[in-house]
Model the fold of this input.
Amino acid sequence: MTDALRPAGTAPTLEDVARTAGVSRATVSRVVNGVRNVDPAIQEAVRRAVSVTGYAPNRAARSLVTRRTDAVALVVSGAGAEPDDEGAAGRGSFTAQVFADPFFGRVVTGVVDSLRPRGMHPVLMFAETSRAREEVVEYLRQGSADGALIVSTHAEDPLPRLVTEAGLAAVLYARPARPVGISYVDLAHRDGARLAAEHLLARGCRRIATIAGPLDVAAGQERLAGFQEALAQQGASEPPVVEGGFTQESGEIAMERLLAEHPGLDGVFAANDLMATGACHVLREHGRRVPEDVAVIGFDDSSAASACRPPLTTVRQPVEDMAAEMTGLLLDRLAAPDRPVTSVVFEPVLIVRDSA
Amino acid sequence: MTDALRPAGTAPTLEDVARTAGVSRATVSRVVNGVRNVDPAIQEAVRRAVSVTGYAPNRAARSLVTRRTDAVALVVSGAGAEPDDEGAAGRGSFTAQVFADPFFGRVVTGVVDSLRPRGMHPVLMFAETSRAREEVVEYLRQGSADGALIVSTHAEDPLPRLVTEAGLAAVLYARPARPVGISYVDLAHRDGARLAAEHLLARGCRRIATIAGPLDVAAGQERLAGFQEALAQQGASEPPVVEGGFTQESGEIAMERLLAEHPGLDGVFAANDLMATGACHVLREHGRRVPEDVAVIGFDDSSAASACRPPLTTVRQPVEDMAAEMTGLLLDRLAAPDRPVTSVVFEPVLIVRDSA
DNA sequence: GGCGAGCAGGAGAGCGCTCTATCCCGGCGT
DNA sequence: ACGCCGGGATAGAGCGCTCTCCTGCTCGCC
Done:
């Protein structure tokens, strides 16, 4: 099992295996990579030599010639044009805040699960400052990863453009504000919001308000627009809107304001589950029953939706599937770099639970 | 800016930069890596050549000779000895479940933030089946990462042993059941549970129960043991115990049972915030006010604690700091492989909010 | 003025792998 | 019987970088 022929501390190489098996380096390489016909007897001998020497192929050496790393950068890209803040505090808060939302955990889940069967792995990166964005581009240009999966939180994020200009392979989560030549996956946010509006209306709600997501985020804009459109089309009156920040706390604050200004409301659509959860808390504290007095609908169908009391009726965003699709698109791109970019838009579904 | 001298599609190499700058490859390398004194004029020339050619050093080539990748594997290691389940369902559920707990997001945050200033990056891996564990070991043996940060959820996890036996650098989150020669960071769980017990007692609670964590996890055992010990030392009666699974739902189920069997209880210690949140929900549904009728204490001080209504009094586990410490220990190990392993145990702090 | 110390820069040998071009050998056609 | 074909194996040339030697200067010192 141990490498008897090697100077201590050095890993066995192809050469060692070849010598042990009495064949050439090339033959060992073929067996290890499972290509071309190799005499079964020799294959067996090589395999034995591999296990005797405890050989493991050196990834760097392989990458050097194949120009593949089997790694992809999974980058969470933050706000747009803020000045670089170098302080640990600034960064810490961004990275911490990212995972406070169950959304990113789901993205990671989807990416890992889709990469895994292909023997690939994600390298986690954050790109919230222009410095950090440069580092991401640099990382990719060095060939440290084969491509990037970019989850962009802001519409004006410059990263997609930077990556394209550098000629790097990448796929986006969410359509970029300005079309740049990159594939993306997205959700039909408007349709989702429409589902929520129609459900509220069908339930008999007439004094409906909405807690919008941040309006500098495409998802925030779209969900609001879709909701307003649907309401208008059904002849309902224009809903009061308060903008939140996709956090539970912002949902609480928004709900307080809504309640203060429109005490008679009977239905609320929050642009994500976290804000919907916050809204439920505030409603209860104000003595309103959910859904009897006020119906609440969230968005995403994240873990927060089922954790909420009452469990949230929500619009499902199939994050894991979308993340898996990103992987697929990226691998397509890597296999055929010249093929035109393709994007996939997923349709949301209404999940009815107890809150509406 | 573009590589005029290169055949299209090929990245510029050191050689190209050297030619452009009129110096040798070695000199360019020195400038790029900032080692040894190089004539300022030449440095400038090289730097200009770098930007003219758009050169980015090839990571694989560099790794091949330095034997460093500047990547570390961040592995979430799952249950112990279950049979390999190959199905996507099984895996999907593990990876999904991992991020359902805010805990892992915090670990990732701490790791990323501590790796970043060192120009290093984490590669995310899961090791919940024996097959997956082998893949992790294989990955490291190939030199794809310089070492591993292992977050182990089960006491009997075989991964730490596998990694040590393979002579790989690694640091654990949580002390392994059997000591293996690996550094680890851990929390003084018993002390934390004691804090909770004493706070409950000081508050005047006399009929105290506890929702334990899974007892095949060290943290679960320790927190329970610490809680029981503290209660006993203060002369309080032995608390009813129900085992949960660290999920909110398991907390709800446990609380239901506790309430059915001990309707008069006035204090609950849940072994993590998620279960405490579930307990609060159930208590309220049963008409108990928190903290007036029943005081509730959680553990971790995760985002769930402040998101809960009422905000949870909880025992803080400084996950981000602990994760950063793991990085530090790993880098120490890489710098001096022969130094004896050192471990760090953090002290928990009680965070008093509204629930107790 | 001569000589050794010290340092900037270059040449070149690898790091461990893949892959093309080549060689060898047995079987087949005529 | 002889050349031809083709599959199986090998030899060897890199991939792009780092790093150890080594050369050739300049400078300081006696």
Remarks:
- The first helix of chain A runs from residue 14 to 21.
- The CA atoms of residues 50 and 150 of chain A lie 39 Å apart.
